[in-house]
Amino acid sequence: MKIHKKTLFSILCLTIGLPSIAGAASIAVTNASFEDNDQPQNWANGIPGGWTSEGGTAGTTPGLTVDGPNRTFMELSSAIGASGGDGPTNLGLRSNALIYQDLGVPFLANTVYTVDLLANRRGGANNEAVFGLSTSGTGALLGTAGGFTTSTFTTSNTFLPVSSLTAAQGNVATFTTGATAPAGNVFLVLSAPTGNAVVDLISVDATTIPEPSSLALISLAALGILRRRR
């Protein structure tokens, strides 16, 4: 059976339309690059604005808020000789630090969520960080938690997307919902088992999974085009 050019073009148009069914969108993160160093020094203790500590203390800006555990700090990336970051400052996480943010949007059904951030090996320090999504600030992370281990990095003082690392160095966080999504809003959680982990720009993307019925309709349409051209 010979397929005409017009037929191929019609099928191609249907195929190109498929990504619109599986659209990806970024979820806004407040103060995603931790721009809060309002102190005259190169660094300052405090919880970044827009974020909340594990104890429930909300960060503010300007004027950094320091909670009892005092496990987070902001610093000028240039002061530690780091490059590749987003904006002048980055976040530092001491041992057992945890901060979170309610992103203000509900979980959606049939959606793939991906969390990425910039990680840095500060000097020759060996640190770890863990991040991902949850239904609350201190709840268990959903899906596959993201993380990185700087002892496996081959460069120092350079911020790198976790998505660009090898499997041994780190991985992004992913969570896929089914037909029924978890109740409540999406919470973004960032923690450090060991300090001082250094991170910058964090992002959350949501990609809708095409429903089988949508894929079936496209397949039937393509089949119909072929039959008409026979």
What is the topology?
Elements: H1 5-21, E1 24-27, E2 43-45, E3 52-53, E4 72-76, E5 89-93, E6 97-106, E7 111-120, E8 128-134, E9 146-149, E10 160-161, E11 170-171, E12 173-176, E13 185-194, E14 197-208, H2 212-229
Antiparallel strand pairs: 1-14, 2-4, 3-6, 4-5, 5-14, 6-13, 7-10, 7-12, 7-14, 8-9, 8-13, 9-11
Helix pairs in contact: 1-2
CATH class category label of the largest domain: Mainly Beta
- SSE order in H/E notation? HEEEEEEEEEEEEEEH
The helix fraction, in percent, is 10-25%
Number of strands: 14
Distance between the termini: 7 Å
**Major β-sheet, in short?**
8 strands, antiparallel
What is the overall silhouette?
Answer: globular
Low-confidence stretches: 7-21
CATH topology tier name of the largest domain: Jelly Rolls
Query: If you average the pLDDT, what whole number results?
Result: 87
Radius of gyration: 22 Å
What is the structure about, briefly put?
15% of the residues lie in helices and 35% in strands. By secondary structure, the chain is an alpha+beta fold.
Structure overview:
The protein has 230 residues and is α+β, with helices and mostly antiparallel strands. The protein has two domains: 1-22 and 211-230; 24-209, Jelly Rolls. Helices cover 15% and strands 35% of the residues. It contains two helices and 14 strands. The protein has helices at residues 5-21, 212-229; strands at 24-27, 43-45, 52-53, 72-76, 89-93, 97-106, 111-120, 128-134, 146-149, 160-161, 170-171, 173-176, 185-194, 197-208. Strands 1, 2, 4, 5, 7, 10, 12 and 14 form an eight-stranded antiparallel β-sheet that branches. The longest helix is centred in the last third of the chain and has 18 residues, at 212-229. The protein starts with a helix and ends with a helix. The model is unreliable at 7-21 (pLDDT under 50).
